[in-house]
Each structure stands twice: as structure tokens, then as C-alpha cells.
Amino acid sequence: MPKSRDSRKQERADIEYRERISALPEELKRTGVDPFAVDVPHILEELKKEHSRNSPDLLTADARALNSVSEVVQIQDQWIGRQLSTLQVDPALVEGKVKQLSLRSLAYVLFMSHHPPVGVRQVSTKRLLEAADYWIQLQGWGRKPGLPAHQPAEQASLQTLEFSAEDIEKEVTRTSEYVLQLVSEGPVPYERVLGDLRGEERVKRSYNISLICAQGLVTLRYDPTLGSYVVQKAVGPPDSSVAIKV
Amino acid sequence: MSNAEQDKEEAQLRERAMHGLRFLLIQRRNQPGCKGWELKREMGRNYLQLLKLVGSLASEIGLKLVSIPDEDFPDDPDRSRYLLVSKEPLNGRDTGSWLRMEEAASLAIVLSHLFVKGEVDSKAVLVNILKEKLPEWRAQQILSKLTRLGYIEEDSGYIKVGWRSKVEVDRDQLLTAILSKGPDGDKNKDS
Fold first, then answer.
1. What is the CATH number of the domain that holds B78?
2. How many other CB atoms are found less than 10 A from the CB of residue A19?
3. A80: domain range?
4. What is this model's ipTM?
5. Is position A139 within any domain?
């Protein structure tokens, strides 16, 4: 005989109740709450009421719930055992004492009750020899580590760029107009923005591009297909700086 | 059984127990000690009886044999972990600084709280307690480190006593030491 809508609804509710009971042991273990907060006699009464129903799903849920109830009773048993076998202290008393003690005293208290595990580690002769080889291969064995020797750059490669405040402003305005026009239709390779400029002029333009980037007008993005940086219109806040060889 | 046979059997048992003690002492992996099934393989089927003898041999050299039941199979001795710990607490000078002072203090606070609250409590409650002694970021950092070291375990916002604390920290000794600790500034009691 097909079941009525009400009986199906009732069955679902009964199964749900049993599933909640099935989850109880895990919940008790996880949260550590007093297992005697679970009213086992009441649960058993409830399970007894619905026991006559003839539904495989309900019977399965019923069996699981009963199993969980037995687990809850086991947890209660363990709880009593633990409470009886260990020193019982008022939590408020411990809390008050902890508040009074300094960090140093609390650390000392831990050391007083700490029994560290004991074990012997061994290193084979082969591993020792490997380690010795490794250290001997390293340069500077037995010496203090230091920075590599400084190699002075050739005088010819060093030049001082001279800018006045007005010059910079003019240069930056000019460069930004040029660059913005270039990137208006899409990203442009960084090399193309620098163009054929050489020496002092090339360095000046790259410096100006860095200032435009810092203003947030354009941005640089590494294009893996080209293997180089491209300049494009900026979106969002200015980027962080990146070192590029010019 | 003659006396000679009895002596021989005792010597054999003692030798097997010594073998077990050596096996327990030598650390093969990151975690100290070994599993029950490993001892069974080394010492034979009656290893549980022999472990009593191992315990007394360990006691002679100032060590204590402890076992940690497996979480999923707590009643199976073969799956338990067995290890040796120091019988008496050692001071910081003996063991080196395996924890910083504020980390050791935080562990004492957390464990004392968990021991009197049924071994589990929410992380938020513990952070609030630690905040009375340390900045919140440091409290969070220390809880992460203690979790990583196995002194505490975190599960869905709840903290419980970890396996290392169960083995290394004597609950009753810790609570007694906290309750009997003199007021700060009493230097004689710390030394």
C-alpha cells in the first residue's frame, strides 16, 4: 500500500532524529562537553516509540542510533573513570592562580612536570663522509663568510646625469604624451618605447618611463611569449618597481 | 625444572627484554619510540609480558616506559605507540631550550585549562586566556607552533590535549605545581 504524504514526512523526521543521535559520540569527543548532558533514557524512550514502523531506511537509522547510544554510554563510563582516577581541582582556582603567575613562573611550572622522551639517534659512517665531502667542497671552509670582492666599474661607463626640476617636469610631460599615444592601441614592447636612443638619452627616457609608471599612467607587464616587458595602459593603483636592463 | 634451567630461562628473558629496551631507545623516525607490532616482531608474541621487564630495566637507568593507545583502535596494544621518557622532570639547562619561555608558559596555561575542563575547549576561549599575558598575534602564533609540535591538537575550532602532552607532561604534577607555586618574586622557589 503506498504511503501517505504525512507518513512519509513523519518517516523523514524520524530518520533525521536518529541521524542526529548517530552524530552525538563524535560531537562529544570533539567538543569535550560533559557526556552526562545527553539524556540517554529519554533518547531510548523516543527510539522505542517508533520501533514498530516497517521501513528499511528507518530500521537502519534506528540501528545506527542505538549503536551511537551505546557509544555515548561508553564515553560516560570513560568520563567517570577519568574523573575518579585523576586529581580533581576547581577550575576557578587554577584560573586564578594562572592569572597571578608571571610567564617565567609558568614556564618553570611546566619544566617541573615535563618528562621529555628519550631516544638515541645514529648517523652512519657513509652519511658522515658525505657531509664532510659537502663541507670541504664549499669555498671558505673554516673561514668567516664574506661578500664577494667588489669589482670597480670602468670609468668610461660612469656618467652623471644632470637634471633640473624644470627639465624633469618637461621631460616627463613629453615622454608621457609620447608613451600614452604609443600604448593607446595596446601593449607595446619596452624596447620599442626606448626606440633608437643610445647612451644618456636612453637612460633618461627609461628614467622618465619609471616616473610615469609610478604616477600610475602606464604599467609594465612581463610577456612570456615575447620574453620581454611590454608597456600598457595602467589599470588600478601604481605597480611596485621592477629592475630592467636598458 | 632444575635451577640451572631456570637460570638459563631467566637469562634468556632478560636478554630479550634488553633487546626490546635497545630497540625502544634507538630512534628511527621523527616520532620517538615504536609501535606495538614492531615490538612484537622484535621480541615475540609475548612481548606485552616482556614489556613489564623492559619497564623495570628502563627504571634502573632513570627512564619510564609509556604507551599511547591508537586513537582509532584504543584497545589494540599492537597499534599503540611505546616510548621511553625521563622518569624525573629535567630542568631547562639539562634539555636545552626546546621552547622559548613564553611558549613554555603558554603551554602551561593551555594544558592547565584543558586538564580541568575535560581536555577539550574552544580555541577562542584559549586565545582569550592567553591574551591576558601576551598580544593576540603572539598567542595565535604560539598555538600554531604547539599544534605543529603535537602538544595540542586543533579540530574545527576546538583545541584538545595532543599526544605529546599526554606522554611528556604529568597532569597531576602540573596542576599541583601551579597551585603550590609561590607568588612571583619568590626567587627561592624557582631555583
1. 1.10.10
2. 13
3. 5-85
4. 0.83
5. no
Final residue in a domain of this structure, among B88, B115, B141: B88
The label of the residue with cell 567538543 reads A31
B116/A97 CB distance under 8 A: no
Question: Which CATH number fits the domain that encloses residue A206?
Answer: 1.10.10
Number of domains in chain B: 2
Give the span between the Cα atoms of B47 and B61, in whole angstroms. Answer: 21
Q: Name the domain boundary from B26, B58, B88.
A: B88
B5 touching A (Cβ < 8 Å): no
Which candidate in B156, B179, B180 is best for mutational testing of the A interface (most A CBs within 10 A)?
B179
pLDDT by 10s per residue, chain A, length 246: 556 777 778 878 888 888 999 998 888 887 777 888 888 888 888 888 766 567 788 888 888 999 999 999 988 888 887 777 666 778 888 889 999 999 999 998 998 898 888 888 878 888 888 888 877 776 555 555 555 556 666 655 667 777 777 777 788 888 888 888 888 888 888 888 888 888 888 888 888 888 888 777 788 888 877 778 888 887 765 555 666 666
Q: How far apart are CA A23 and CA A143, in angstroms?
A: 64
- Residue A205 · residue A239 · CB < 8 Å: no
Interchain CB distance below 8 Å, A32 and B160: yes
- A216 sits in the region (left: phi over 0; alpha: psi -120 to 50; else beta) called left
Let me know if residue B74 belongs to a domain: yes
Residues of chain B with C-beta less than 8 angstroms from the C-beta of A77: none
**B191 located within any domain:** no
pTM recorded for the entire structure: 0.58
